Backbone:
């Protein structure tokens, strides 16, 4: 998808192109598509749709090719609305240049995927812990590779330190220099290893000693000492590569912010060896499947088993696309509550707990505590509270206040004149105003905005009876929203799933949040009731001019 200037702003894939593209421009937009099921995600996709000027497409033979092509194009063009792994390090490559006397360079890729610097053979990528990355200086010394940008007219310090054979002064022939370069090529390609090279050098050292060329034998001995460290690191690297068995990938989605948070936990031989966190926006068809495709196309080593808390779409095609980057089979396994292996379930729970701590940062402590106490699926960033204010049978009104992140959000306030209940029946009144508040949101043409979104939690001022009335109203509207009530006398919290109320400490941040929202709903409803009575009284005074003042 391109903007008016022709720049690519989003790259996606679809089995049915017509259905997918039309979903972005429908009245309901892509927020209710298969990958973003909650209506609150709508606004970010709307931002994307507002910038789309043209749509281009490429046909592939199957889903596997689509995954691979999507991943490659995203890495090349880096569209602003696609998943970008913000925690992703830029991997290091080694390059042997195509010069007469080649050099060994450390290189990186630019945003288009091209390697910086002169032309040459590239090896990698290598992470910072890789022995080849750490030993690049040692490799230059071992194979007498020059480090100068251009051949000087006289030898530099490296020659006198015996780290270079000085091709600049023709101290070594091109064929002799190339012999060392070819050996380095072989080691970096994996066709040879350090141990084989060590054996050859040991034989050469013994041969030099036998003909009493002790200076050459000493140089070879010093080189062998340098190799010991590199050889040990290479063996450890191979051991770790062989035993990178499994990785745990947990995802949590924040509905209000339309954001996804991912944590990966890698385990080697039963020991946790690495942990990473990522964040991406729920725009278009950005999903766990898209993340995994991007992630495993960039990591150095891919595990055989990937455990997830949400099964990605097109799992088999995703597995096959990831297997293109490795030489073994990859299995993506869902860890659910009824998962057979307790150890795997415990590790996934650990990932989710750590990820939840990351997600909770930035939220008010009382809101986070409220989520934990009520065992809500997400942090209740948006909370609505309902209250009834009546004065006899004449004046009966309802009020709804909305709080976002613990603060009043006045655009979400609503006030109601009671229309369907003609006596002092608080239960029926609660049911009426809850129905009237949320029923319009279900209509297709209702305007969208933060005030029109469904809340994460509903609070009812009252006891268990008022709570049941609100739940009945939600069921009639076919809505599933967590709902509780707060009774004033002892500040007891009632929930549908518990037989006994929850009583919190008076100093509890969660209780203070609920009290604040309840008191604001009471104030707002009472102010509306008083205003109606004042208007009624003023109207009577105007229509009766002969009243005598006393």
Residues:
């Amino acid at each position: 998808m391109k903007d008016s200037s022709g720049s690519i702003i989003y790259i996606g894939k679809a089995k049915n192109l017509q259905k997918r593209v039309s979903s972005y421009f429908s009245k309901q937009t892509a927020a209710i598509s298969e990958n973003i099921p909650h209506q609150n995600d709508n606004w970010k996709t709307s931002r994307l749709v507002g910038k789309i000027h043209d749509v281009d497409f490429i046909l592939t033979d199957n889903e596997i090719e689509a995954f691979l092509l999507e991943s490659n194009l995203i890495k090349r063009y880096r569209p602003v609305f696609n998943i970008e792994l913000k925690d992703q390090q830029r991997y290091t490559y080694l390059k042997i240049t195509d010069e007469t006397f080649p050099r060994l360079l450390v290189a990186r890729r630019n945003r288009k995927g091209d390697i910086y610097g002169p032309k040459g053979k590239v090896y990698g990528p290598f992470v910072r812990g890789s022995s080849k990355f750490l030993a690049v200086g040692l490799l230059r010394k071992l194979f007498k590779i020059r480090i100068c940008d251009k051949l000087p007219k006289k030898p530099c310090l490296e020659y006198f330190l015996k780290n270079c054979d000085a091709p600049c002064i023709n101290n070594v022939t091109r064929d002799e220099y190339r012999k060392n370069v070819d050996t380095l090529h072989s080691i970096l390609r994996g066709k040879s290893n350090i141990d084989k090279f060590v054996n050859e050098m040991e034989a050469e050292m013994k041969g030099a000693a036998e003909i009493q060329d002790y200076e050459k034998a000493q140089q070879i001995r010093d080189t062998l000492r340098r190799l010991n460290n590199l050889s040990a690191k290479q063996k450890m690297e191979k051991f770790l590569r062989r035993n990178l068995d499994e990785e745990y990938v947990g995802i949590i989605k924040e509905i209000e912010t339309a954001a996804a948070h991912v944590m990966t936990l890698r385990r080697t031989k039963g020991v946790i060896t690495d942990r990473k966190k990522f964040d991406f926006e729920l725009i278009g068809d950005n999903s766990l499947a898209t993340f995994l495709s991007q992630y495993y196309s960039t990591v150095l080593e891919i595990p055989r088993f990937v455990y997830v808390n949400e099964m990605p779409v097109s799992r088999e095609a995703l597995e096959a696309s990831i297997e293109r980057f490795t030489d073994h089979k990859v299995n993506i396994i869902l860890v659910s509550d009824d998962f057979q292996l307790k150890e795997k379930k415990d590790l996934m729970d650990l990932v989710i707990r750590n990820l939840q701590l990351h997600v909770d940062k930035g939220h008010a402590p009382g809101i986070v505590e409220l989520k934990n106490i009520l065992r809500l699926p997400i942090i209740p960033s948006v909370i609505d509270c309902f209250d009834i204010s009546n004065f006899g049978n004449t004046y009966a009104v309802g009020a709804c206040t909305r709080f976002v992140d613990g603060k009043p959000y006045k655009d979400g306030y609503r006030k109601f004149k009671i229309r369907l209940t003609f006596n002092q029946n608080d239960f029926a009144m609660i049911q009426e105003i809850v129905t009237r508040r949320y029923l319009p949101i279900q209509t297709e043409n209702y305007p969208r905005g933060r005030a029109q979104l469904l809340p994460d939690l509903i609070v009812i001022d009252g006891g268990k009876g008022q709570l049941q009335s609100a739940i009945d109203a939600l069921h009639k509207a076919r809505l599933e929203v967590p709902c509780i009530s707060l009774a004033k006398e002892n500040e007891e919290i009632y929930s549908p799933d518990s037989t006994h109320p929850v009583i919190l400490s008076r100093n509890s941040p969660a209780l203070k949040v609920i009290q604040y929202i309840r008191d604001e709903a009471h104030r707002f409803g009472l102010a509306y009731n008083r205003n109606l009575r004042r208007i009624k009284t003023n109207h009577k005074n105007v229509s009766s001019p002969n009243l005598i003042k006393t």
Remarks:
- The CA atoms of residues 92 and 254 lie 34 Å apart.
- The longest helix spans residues 509-543.
- Confidence is low (pLDDT under 50) at residues 27-41, 127-131, 236-243, 444-449.
- The chain has three domains: 92-239, 244-360, 369-537.
